[in-house]
Amino acid sequence: MNVLLIGSGGREHALAWRLGNSPSVAKLTCPNGNPGIAQVAETPRVALHSHEDWVSYARQNAIDLVVVGPEAPLDGGIADAFRAAAIPIFGPVKAGARIESSKAWAKELMASAGIPTARARTFTDPAEAKEFARQLGLPVVIKADGLAAGKGVTVALTRQEAGRAIDENLVESRFGDSSAKVLVEEFMEGEEASVFGLCDGVDVYTLPAAQDHKRVRDNDEGPNTGGMGAYAPAPVYTNGIADIVRREVLQPLVDEFRRRGIDYRGVIFAGLMLTQHGPKVIEFNCRFGDPETQVLMPLIEGDLALLLLACAEGRLKSLPESIANHADSTIRTRPLSATTVVLASAGYPGDYTKGLPITGLDAANADKNAVIFHAGTTRDNNQVLTAGGRVLAVTAWDTTLPKSQARAYELVRRISFDGCHYRSDIAAKALNK
Questions:
Q1: 328 Cβ neighbours under 8 A, 6+ residues apart
Q2: Contact at 8 Å (CB) between 243 and 252?
Q3: Bridge-partner residues for 27, per DSSP?
Q4: Structure letter (DSSP) for residue 162
Q5: What is the mean pLDDT of each run of 10 residues along the chain (433 residues)?
């Protein structure tokens, strides 16, 4: 089949790499993709601004399946446009994408479906928000209601920090329209886990859980980022917890979508807190996570394109057993562990310099049990340059988590650019238990 991939970052490189290894894919196209994506897909430089442009491009290129990476196009309704054109697309319609684009709506949805989550209220008035934060005690979580590129959440340890986060949103509009409302939420204790559920509108099948590392520095210190690394499968996410999540989180969410007339076909990304009272939802996203996608794609055993097409066409249960285990609604994966380490620009998650030469990529790419996913890069003649805050995601896999971690860091040390920084403790939490 001919597959069209929308997006140009590290998550999309991971999807392109895995789709390119799918036997069913004859041609993979990712317009305006980064230099890493260009290694595994055609990346024509074309101006595609509107949904009509994308649909026209897909028709001209006989596209059989569209896969959407980022959340913004989904929130904008691109899946609605492709569905209207009868072109299969993996990604939810705009009504379903609200699960990520409005945290307040997501909370209301969870309440209606009886999904366990933290107590929270939504505010537009700073004084009322600060008073509720005081009532909840410390720590307290402040979230911008809308999309904020993974940077709209503050875990406030003091009343001053909470007040500042509320003012940044409601008074200073730090994230524009996304800051028009804030959620003030109770802090949950436990370990986090990221779970991808692949949904066809009725059923939902899961991948192994990953653990992301959001803080910029070791020991979970410093500001939140879009993600500095991940590992999978997460040992803390047991089969028993997985059963609870499917039964009490993912399937109730899909059923609630159906009750509301929303035909959700795509990823349900559940960010979970594994508390002493059981798993609770931190947030939902409507797309594959980053860097969780980079760490999970090497583990998938079957044909990813056929899997995503089955979701888009509403027929997960028709997949062969080589791709999906229908007995427990899981996607088949290899018995391996993987580790991803993100290499970031100096200053990230704040301001950073672009256009710095990257060395060592060829040496790192020589490992057949690893791949260097490009997130923020560009090419000038034969030189790859930095072009973003998160530049590369070094992913390695092996038979055990310690081996995959060691392999990933061995490759990290081969790559360099001015100001490069990364966390040295990805997966350490699991290994130190």
A1: none
A2: no
A3: 2
A4: H
A5: 98 98 98 97 97 98 98 97 98 98 94 96 95 95 86 90 95 92 94 97 98 95 93 96 97 98 98 96 96 98 98 98 96 98 97 97 90 97 96 98 97 97 96 82
Burial (Cβ within 10 Å: 0-12, 13-18, ≥19) of residue 114: exposed
Q: Strands, E, within 47-96: which ranges?
A: 65-68, 89-90
Q: Are 181 and 124 in contact (CB under 8 A)?
A: yes
Which residue from 196, 200, 232 is spatially nearest to 308, judged by alpha carbons? 200
Place of tokens 């006989």: 62
- End-to-end CA, the chain: 45
- What's at 31, amino acid-wise? P
Q: Domains of the chain (ranges plus CATH)?
A: 2-91 (3.40.50.20), 119-186 (3.30.1490.20), 191-331 (3.30.470.20), 337-431 (3.90.600.10)
Our CA angle for 39, 301, 368, nearest 5°, is 45
In Å, how far from its chain's centre is CA 26?
A: 26
Peptide bond into 139 cis (omega under 30): yes
Q: According to the model, what pLDDT value does residue 274 have?
A: 97
Please choose, from the candidates 337, 343, 370, the residue with its C-alpha nearest in 3D space to the C-alpha of residue 211.
337
pLDDT the model gives residue 344:
98
Closest CA to 340 of 242, 254, 409: 409
Return the ∠ at Cα 293 (arms to 365 and 72), rounded to 5°: 120
149 Cα distance to chain centroid: 11
Q: How far apart are CA 269 and CA 266, in angstroms?
A: 10
What is the rounded distance in angstroms from the CA atom of residue 286 to the CA atom of residue 96? 8
The residue with tokens 């803080």 is 215
Name the pTM for this structure.
Answer: 0.94
Q: CA Rg, the chain, in Å?
A: 21
Structure tokens at 167: 């003012």
